Amino acid sequence: MDFRASCANTENSIKSYLILVNMIILGIETSCDETAAAVIDGRGDNIKILSDVVYSQINIHKKYCGVVPEAAAREHVLKIIPVIDRALKKAGIKPKEAKKKINALAATVGPGLITSLLVGVETAKALSYVWQIPVVAMNHIEAHIYANFLENEKKEFPAVILTVSGGHTMLVLMRGHGQYKILGETKDDAAGEAFDKAGQILHLGYPGGPLISRYGAQADISKNSGIVFPRPMIKNKSYDFSFSGLKTALLYAVKKDPEWKKKVPAYCREFEQAVIDVLINKTIKAARDFQARSVMLSGGVSANLALRSQMSRAVKENLPAAKFFLPAQKFTTDNAAMVAAAGYFKAQRGEYLPWQKLLADCNLVLK
Ligand code: KG4
Ligand code: ZN
């Protein structure tokens, strides 16, 4: 049966689409400062990445030590079509054949910067209208979680996922595909945001996460630096986090220390370890409490090598019944392969939208 045979512009007819066991999905991601498009081939529980193109705007925002929404949106407008064009070509799909070869679109609709989101959403709508194919509206956090599903190793539920990015820090319980419960989240700064602010305090540049990690690795661990930061909320029974006090502790320590510039690696190492200790402690507690069969990491901060290795060890030591998963480095930060993968599993549940219903929502929550 032709997938497009029932393609019309009403939600009901969209829901009655044949759910294809094998689907080619074009993912589109523009929630912050990466313009990304990817094509995946989903078959059963397996994902094959046919192309994955990410254009990062980091060089534009670096000089402002953070993302400037207006500049980000303008750049997305300029790059979105060239990025999609490259993703199609890399996947071996000629633009003329795209409407026949692609079964559905998946676009990030939120959360994120509204002006950035709108570029991806409106582009997806235009393609959906012209190609007459349905769209899946993707939550950015759900997409980050599905970066784990780009690796085809079988995942068992329930899963506990620590999702840590520049905008979010969350512990999520996943009982099955599309079934989420937020166990806890940050009460103030996200972990990535804390890293970025620490990078600013230490005059390292933007984004702070990779820089703090790189400088921290240069610290001389044979000597006691005497620098000790708090582990916020580590003893608190909830699964919530708080990182703004840690950032303030770093700020005051540096202000009081006339020699701080000579000790940047030691400051970085202790700051990084304080964040990691809290993240690991809460993740292990949640995974134990909910008898997780899988523990996963996701989001930009999960690129952090120390977090990856220490979490892996902590899961092995504390949760022998659980398996640990983490996305490949390049799928930790924003990309469209994760959006397409999440879109594929959502499409398998028949959760399409007609183009008219696709709306950007900067405050979209995971449910
Ligand atoms: O997921 P992402 O690309 O964008 C958002 O959705 O926010 O995450 C970006 C965040 C930034 O805050 C960046 O500093 C952090 O991820 N990050 C890292 C590392 N690489 C990126 N944080 C710690 N260590 C890293 N290696
Ligand atoms: Zn992200």
How would you write the strand order of the largest sheet?
3-2-1-4-5
Structural class: alpha/beta
Mean pLDDT across the residues is 93
Strand content: 15-25%
pLDDT < 50 runs, ≥5 residues: 1-13
Number of helices: 12
Please report the total strand number as a whole number. Answer: 10
The rounded Rg comes to 21 Å
- Name every ligand kind in the structure: 5'-O-[(R)-(carboxyoxy)(hydroxy)phosphoryl]adenosine, zinc ion
Query: Level of helix content?
Result: 25-40%
Q: What is the N-to-C order of secondary-structure elements (H for helix, E for strand)?
A: HEEEHHHEHEHEEEHHHHEHEH
Largest sheet: 5 strands, mixed
What is the end-to-end distance?
A: 32 Å
Outline: globular
Structural features, described:
The protein is of the alpha/beta class and 367 residues long. Helices cover 40% and strands 19% of the residues. The protein is built from twelve helices and ten strands. It has helices at 11-15, 58-61, 69-90, 98-101, 114-131, 140-146, 191-201, 208-216, 244-256, 264-289, 305-318, 337-348, and strands at residues 22-29, 34-43, 46-56, 104-110, 135-139, 159-164, 169-176, 179-185, 294-298, 323-325. The strands form two sheets. It has a five-stranded mixed beta sheet with strand order 3-2-1-4-5, sandwiched between helices. α3 packs parallel to α5, α7 packs across α8 (208-216) and α8 crosses α10. The chain is globular, with a radius of gyration of 21 Å. The chain starts with 10 loop residues before the first helix and ends in a 19-residue tail after the last helix. It binds 5'-O-[(R)-(carboxyoxy)(hydroxy)phosphoryl]adenosine (KG4) and zinc ion.
